[in-house]
Amino acid sequence: MLKRLAAVTVCLSVLTLTGCGQENDDAPADTASDTTSESSEPAGETTTCEYPSDGQEPAREVEAPDTEAQAEGTVAATMTTNFGDIGLTLDATAAPCTVNSFVSLAEQGFYDDTPCPRIGDQEGFGILQCGDPTGTGSGGAGYSFADELTGDETYPAGTLAMANGGPDTNGSQFFLVFRDSQFPPSYSVFGTIDAAGLEVIAAIAAEGNDGAHPAGGGTPNKDVTIEKVTIG
């Protein structure tokens, strides 16, 4: 489900699963919370995370992330789309459990060949929402995890944040902010988008959308596909 991004009072409308893309608010469904992926072990300072089942069938079979997460530094990632590459810098210091989940899903190919079903482009609200392989806004990886918030979060252009369907319902869905947006500090910020990536998203927004999403924006007029997400 595209998590609810309501504008101004806007509640990131996440269609069921996680955050801004799931209406159950983007909580990916993956029940194997005690299994681990084959990601390399974190170096340096670490923290312990929990990824319990969200009770939903995962959109794709994946293992839940390892519970030990890197808790310092940054991780580079590239989201390759049919419009071009979007460079990301993931902030493991600010959001270790979120980054740990995103990296695990990316390394398992969860995001490969998946649609970004929502673009919001009105004043005070500019986001591209992705992370649900079903493209319905209600799909996820089968597990959820807690918010990583300070209460001081803001969402200027260049922000990478989790979509959700309420407190502590993070899953696989996320949104990329390409225009300064006014949201309450309810969505975990876990990275930034590079300048070239913002240009790619602006090109997507320029294609327009059907305006059908109740919280703003809608389905892109031209299909947007994540071809792969590369870590490092």
From TrEMBL:
Residues 1-21 form the signal peptide. Residues 29-43 have a biased composition (Low complexity). It catalyses: [protein]-peptidylproline (omega=180) = [protein]-peptidylproline (omega=0). Residues 22-58 are annotated as: Disordered. It is an enzyme of class 5 (isomerase). InterPro entries: Cyclophilin-like_dom_sf (IPR029000), Cyclophilin-type_PPIase_dom (IPR002130), Cyclophilin_A-like (IPR044666). Its EC number is 5.2.1.8. One of its GO terms (molecular function) is peptidyl-prolyl cis-trans isomerase activity. The keyword Flavoprotein does not apply. It comes from the Bacteria. Keywords: Isomerase, Rotamase, Signal. Pfam families: Pro_isomerase. Residues 84-231 form the PPIase cyclophilin-type domain. PPIases accelerate the folding of proteins. It catalyzes the cis-trans isomerization of proline imidic peptide bonds in oligopeptides. Belongs to the cyclophilin-type PPIase family. This is Peptidyl-prolyl cis-trans isomerase. It comes from Nocardioides astragali.
